[in-house]
Design a protein that fits this description.
48% helix; COMT_C; globular; 4 domains; two-stranded antiparallel ribbon; Arc Repressor Mutant, subunit A; binds S-adenosylmethionine; S-adenosyl-L-methionine-dependent methyltransferase; S-adenosyl-L-methionine; methyltransferase; single chain
Length: 426
């Protein structure tokens, strides 16, 4: 990208913008509003799956616009932007703590004076907070003295999961990340789930989820925040369905074990899209109970729940052992233990499928690829886990047993996730 001239970059943006205009005009039935800004910021629950060319055009604009900005801006200015970014956190914390989105009506506007009264804060300070928030597209001032929502602040106001994800990020992830270097000084191997910034900031020896279990409101917020992060269209489970030929294996005697499958969200989705194959969701006790209770009646014959600790030997001989967002929580040592515990149960041709974010092998400055790096830092801060590259996966799977063969990685365009496949081939 760096070899392109500024004009070429600008033309690329123009071309993709025209494409998006055209696609939204001719209407795939997915972006019903005339306002592009609003349409493009709809959440997944409001829209259907985004067509691939539209998704790609959006990513191209984001990456190219960022590159163009970097090229026209002096490095001193870019550097200052980087190290002054912490004030975004200050303002977001004020937005969260003072529940500012909830102070503004979903349509129309209110005044600074009314909000100041409602949150019992000096109006001058509050105005300063809002002025900064407006600069980062949270709220707008439609007329002097009045505050209204932008799509971002409206989302925080109307979607409780979005608001919880803001709280979970500011109150759990940010403080843990600030202690990462202290944790690394104390525990340089960075392999244990009890030796991270999270334990240091919370003065505990417990892993994240065990600690949160003792603080029910924080645990609730953490769960809700995670649910919000998994709602993006780039995480749509249709991509998982496209990544593997599930329909080809859709027979009565084909069994998929979803290891650490939570409440069974993936199993339910795959069972709905297939006719015959069976799913066993394994997780820790409380989670399994909740999943079992919520299982739709019509799937009870094909989806079952089972308590199983994935650090003990797998009792089910299945065709597929599926894991989503498990391995990134653990260091290689622990992942090796999880995989090794599957091997005694595996029959010839059985597969391990790991559905995870993937880090690029070569580091990139493309903004659209920043998500994997972000998640990698979250994993370091709270779990001593990591987001892996293709070579990281190969290494992990290859060290187990030479009968376990790394088969490849399925990547579906538009998806943030990759499906890593290994097969038991004695
Ligand atoms: C990040 S969540 C992923 C849940 C699910 N796979 C999904 O994609 O929605 C990690 C899951 O691992 C489960 N888990 C953690 N330790 C476990 C263990 N030792 N045995 C089985 N499940 C475990 C947690 O209860 C949680 O449901």
């Amino acid at each position: 990208m760096t070899s392109s001239s500024l004009v070429q970059l600008a033309e690329k943006i123009l071309e993709r913008a025209k494409m998006i205009d055209e696609l939204t005009k001719t209407n795939f039935g997915i972006l019903p509003n005339s306002s592009h800004l609003r349409s493009l910021t709809q959440t997944r629950t409001e829209q259907q799956q985004v067509p691939l060319e539209l998704a790609q055009a959006r990513l191209d604009i984001v990456d190219t616009a960022q590159e163009l900005k970097r090229r026209v801006q002096d490095p001193e200015v870019t550097l200052a932007e980087l190290f002054t970014g912490y004030t975004d956190t200050l303002i977001l914390r004020a937005v969260y703590k003072l529940k500012l989105p909830q102070q503004v009506p979903t349509e129309g506007s209110t005044t600074y004076a009314r909000i100041a009264q409602s949150v019992s804060m000096d109006e001058t300070i509050l105005r300063r907070f809002f002025h900064y928030a407006i600069s980062i597209h949270v709220f707008e001032e439609p007329e002097p003295g009045h505050i209204a929502h932008t799509p971002i602040s409206r989302l925080l106001c109307t979607n409780p999961l979005a608001f919880d994800s803001l709280g979970m990020t500011l109150e759990e992830l940010v403080p843990a990340s600030q202690e990462v270097l202290v944790a690394l000084e104390r525990y340089p191997r960075a392999t244990e789930p009890t030796e991270t910034g999270f334990q240091i900031v919370n003065q505990t020896d417990l892993p994240v989820y065990e600690f949160l279990a003792q603080h029910p409101e924080r645990a609730r917020r953490f769960g809700a925040g995670m649910r919000f992060f998994t709602q993006g269209s780039h995480l749509d489970l249709n991509y998982l369905f496209e990544a593997f030929p599930w329909r080809e294996y859709d027979s009565n005697d084909f069994t998929v074990v979803d290891v650490g499958g939570g409440h069974g969200g993936v199993a339910i989705e795959l069972a709905t899209k297939t006719m015959n194959m069976h799913f066993i969701v394994q997780d820790i006790e409380g989670t399994i109970e909740a999943g079992r209770t919520a299982l739709p009646e019509e799937l009870k014959g094909r989806v079952t729940f089972m308590t199983h600790d994935f650090f003990s030997e797998q009792p089910i001989s299945a065709d597929v052992y599926f894991f989503r967002w498990i391995m990134h929580n653990w260091s290689d040592e622990y992942c090796e233990r999880i995989i090794r515990n599957l091997l005694p149960a595996m029959k010839r041709g059985a597969r391990i499928l790991l559905y995870e974010h993937e880090m690029d092998e070569t580091p990139t400055s493309r903004l659209s690829r920043k998500g994997a790096g972000y998640l990698d830092m979250v994993m370091l801060s709270g779990f001593n886990g990591c987001v892996r590259t293709e070579s990281g996966w190969k290494k992990l799977l290859a060290t187990q047993d030479n009968r376990l063969r790394f088969k490849g990685i399925h990547r579906v365009p538009g998806s943030a996730m990759s499906l890593v496949e290994a097969i038991w081939d004695p």
